[in-house]
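Please fill in the sequence for the structure shown.

STRUCTURE ENCODING:
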């Protein structure tokens, strides 16, 4: 494989995603501007129906963002002050902050090599105050849902899925978002299915939870004039739903391209240096929201790639339990050794669907060159 000295490889190119669908998106937005149907309209209903079908659930409820999806799920399950909810310390902040915002206490359990919750660590973290487990499908790989659900059933706990990075991922043929009481999705512009701004979705098969969430996202309103309980304004705008309805058609193609890029990385980088490379485990169909390699030389490799025009990221350099915001929880360094080791070695490579094969080859060649020169 020839080594190219430099080639521009951005970590993401949000504009490129619209190259083939821009006019259709503009046409839908134009129709909404003419109609004035901005809130709780037909585009939203269409999106919710197709999203539920994708996930294999009875219902999907559009909300304002992924954090609200988690928060409103806990609200629907009656989780609040005095309760504990177990989740992973290596996720994005919202996995834990939503617990705190609900009035409950975030409790962390360490993760496995795949960066998802270790079921045995979860078991050890359960107390008499534990009410739920938030299973994060980090990087687009499904968490160990069968084991987590078995533990939850044993201890009479709810399971909420944080699917922010994993839309379309499956485990043994079953879609994430359909395992727990609720599945919580983010539609942030960086996600695999992205709104033109913030957005979120909650999936569920539970009739009572669905009925509650329909009110909870809209001030607790039963109808235009009557409120059943005080709640929040967390509706997914009809304009965002219009954009998403166009993108839903493209999602399978984008997902397959992400998986193809991941396969190229796995083939080209396996056995290179001390790299640890992600790969689908048995029964998994990951969607590679991020493609995260691990190396003890992370910082030097990141700088080397930047010199060759390759943008990389770190998801995430500081685990949640060591954030200033979490200091009140009393955790300290070394409490979660797997998480902390990963935070020092992880590096996210570009994996967005519009990358060319030449750009992927340049990333592979540059990483290989780095380790050859180091040796």
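FILLED IN BY: designer on duty
SEQUENCE:
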């Amino acid at each position: 494989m020839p080594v190219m000295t430099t080639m521009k490889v951005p970590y993401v190119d949000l504009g490129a995603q619209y190259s083939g669908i821009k006019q259709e998106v503009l046409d839908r937005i134009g129709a909404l501007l003419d109609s004035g149907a901005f809130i709780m309209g037909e585009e939203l209903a269409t999106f919710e129906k197709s999203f539920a079908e994708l996930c294999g659930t009875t219902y999907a409820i559009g909300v304002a963002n992924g954090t609200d999806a988690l928060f409103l799920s806990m609200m629907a399950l009656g989780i609040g002050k005095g309760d504990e909810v177990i989740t992973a310390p290596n996720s994005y902040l919202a996995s834990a902050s939503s617990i705190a915002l609900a009035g409950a206490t975030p409790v962390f359990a360490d993760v496995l090599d795949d960066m998802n919750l270790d079921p045995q660590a979860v078991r050890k973290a359960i107390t008499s105050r534990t009410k739920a487990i938030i299973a994060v499908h980090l990087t687009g790989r499904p968490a160990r849902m069968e084991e987590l659900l078995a533990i939850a059933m044993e201890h009479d706990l709810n399971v909420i899925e944080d699917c922010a990075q994993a839309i379309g991922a499956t485990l043994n043929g079953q879609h994430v978002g359909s395992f727990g009481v609720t599945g919580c999705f983010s539609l942030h512009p960086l996600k695999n299915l992205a709104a033109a701004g913030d957005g979120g979705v909650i999936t569920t098969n539970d009739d009572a939870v669905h009925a509650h969430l329909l009110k909870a996202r809209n001030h607790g309103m039963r109808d235009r004039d009557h409120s059943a309980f005080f709640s929040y304004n967390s509706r997914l705008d009809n304009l965002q739903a219009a954009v998403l309805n166009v993108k839903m058609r493209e999602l399978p193609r984008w997902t397959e391209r992400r998986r193809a890029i991941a396969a190229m990385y796995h083939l080209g980088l396996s056995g290179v240096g001390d790299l640890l490379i992600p790969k689908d485990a048995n029964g998994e169909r990951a969607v590679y929201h991020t493609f995260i390699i691990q190396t003890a030389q992370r910082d030097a490799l990141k700088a080397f790639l930047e010199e060759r025009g390759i943008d990389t990221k770190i998801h995430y350099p500081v685990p949640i339990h060591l954030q200033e915001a979490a200091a009140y929880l009393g955790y300290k360094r070394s409490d979660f050794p797997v998480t902390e080791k990963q935070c020092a070695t992880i590096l996210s490579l570009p994996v967005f669907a519009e990358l060319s094969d030449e750009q992927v080859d340049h990333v592979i060649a540059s990483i290989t060159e780095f380790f050859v020169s180091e040796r």
